Amino acid sequence: MTVLVFGRNGQLANALIRHPWSPNADGSPRKVVALGSAEADIRDAVAVTNAITTHQPTLVVNAAAYTAVDKAESEPEAAYAVNETGSGAIAHAAAAAGIPLIHVSTDYVFDGTGTSPYREDQPTAPLGVYGASKLAGEKAVAAAGGRTVSLRTSWVFSADGNNFVKTMLRLGADRPALRVVADQVGRPTAAADIAAAIAFLEPFVADGRASGVLHFAGAEAISWHGFAEAIFDEAAALGRPRPSVAPITTADYPTPAKRPAYSVLACDRFLALPGASLPDWRVALRQVVTDLVG
Ligand SMILES: NC(=O)c1ccc[n+]([C@@H]2O[C@H](COP(=O)([O-])OP(=O)(O)OC[C@H]3O[C@@H](n4cnc5c(N)ncnc54)[C@H](OP(=O)(O)O)[C@@H]3O)[C@@H](O)[C@H]2O)c1
Q1: Pseudo-torsion of CA 93, 96, 97, 98, nearest 10°?
Q2: CA of 66 to the centre of ligand 1 (A)
Q3: Residue 236 pLDDT grade (very low, low, confident, very high; cuts 50, 70, 90)
Q4: Which residues have any ligand 1 atom within 6 Å of their CB?
Q5: Could you give all domains of the chain from N- to C-terminal order, each with its CATH number?
């Protein structure tokens, strides 16, 4: 009963490795095998197929992605090679082997001009190469025709890898005052909570009660500025200096890739599954900040 994770060193892959998976029916612990690009480069369809043949998983999770949002603007081929071609290779291999796949996607498939949470069936319109390549990945996964869910999530944070929480804590350690964008709103989501959602989803994907695109994110929407305030509140409670955080606009902080302004995912489809709930990201944030500076 192996869970095979493509991606090894990223935020989500680490959370999947650490997740307390329910034991197998015979009481033995669930085995999680996570493969980084050195072991199985997802751009290589043969390597992907070999990994599935070798490990004979009962669930495949694609946690591998090209996630450098700004860099993708100048190297679109690299982004598409991983996010479209690689995701498609995993989906084809999983479908051929009859194994359910949970693929992970992003809120950046939307342009963020909306004013109410985005449902799965709303039109996509990515603003940049990263979002476009992830959308192409969703389509490649759907085209493979297996038992799949493309789980769109947003604003991922954990004590691993690169993310906004770690950036804020690093900058806040040296500076008494920061400026953070206040006109982009989204739902922060802890990698640990995505891992739990994937474990929760497994039986629903396996028997077809969940399929296609599904949104999952932290319960509360907030701006980057508000998120920064929450991060520094937690750090200050642990005795760290608390910088002031001034709200600025997106125009004050230009980046190579445009970001959606209103990037709030509606998670009603996920919530309709029996037993589903959305996590309070503030609970996970306290743990992550404690892990990083406590
Ligand atoms: N981060 C966010 O805020 C965010 C928001 C919404 C959705 N998502 C989605 O959530 C998922 C997980 O994101 P994350 O934050 O955990 O990403 P991450 O920390 O950037 O990790 C991505 C991992 O993908 C692996 N990878 C890249 N190219 C690969 C290749 N060709 N073959 C095999 N592995 C490869 C890398 O492994 P190596 O180090 O071994 O190369 C890297 O560790 C992704 O699908 C992402 O698009 C993320």
Answers
A1: 120
A2: 6
A3: very high
A4: 6-12, 36-37, 41-43, 63-67, 82, 86, 104, 106-107, 134, 153-156, 161
A5: 2-154+191-217+266-275 (3.40.50.720)
